[in-house]
Design a protein that fits this description.
Blueprint: H1 11-30, E1 34-40, E2 46-52, E3 57-62, H2 65-75, E4 78-80, H3 85-89, H4 95-105
Parallel strand pairs: 1-4
Antiparallel strand pairs: 1-2, 2-3
Helix pairs in contact: 1-2
């Protein structure tokens, strides 16, 4: 008799989630801890936005929303629903970011 409650585990997806979790953990270690937010970005998959306790930030892209969610869970970081409020305020931007944002606004 087959157990209908068992889930199929995709080994490739598991490996990808484990690799992403390792990258997230390395980021957290390098920046005194980290928090994140997962966002679906369409066919491309899902973006994992990371913000370190020191204000540094970065992004990772997972092939699916499910893999992204598995990765942040495996890494054990705090995950926010939205990228706003106190979480967004932790991001430190430098001259490069301000110059780049200004260039986008004026067509550069």
């Amino acid at each position: 008799m087959a157990d209908t409650d068992t889930q199929q585990v995709d080994p490739k997806a598991e490996r990808k989630a484990a690799r992403l979790a390792k990258q997230i953990s390395a980021f957290a270690k390098a920046h005194g801890g980290a928090e994140g937010q997962v966002a679906y970005i369409g066919e491309r998959g899902a973006r994992i936005a990371l913000v370190g306790e020191d204000g540094n930030w970065g992004n990772l892209v997972a092939p699916t929303l499910e893999i992204a969610q598995q990765a942040v869970t495996k890494a054990g970081i705090t995950v926010h629903e939205d990228f706003d409020g106190e979480f967004a305020a932790k991001v430190q931007t430098g001259r490069y970011e301000w110059k780049r944002m200004a260039g986008i606004q004026i067509g550069g």
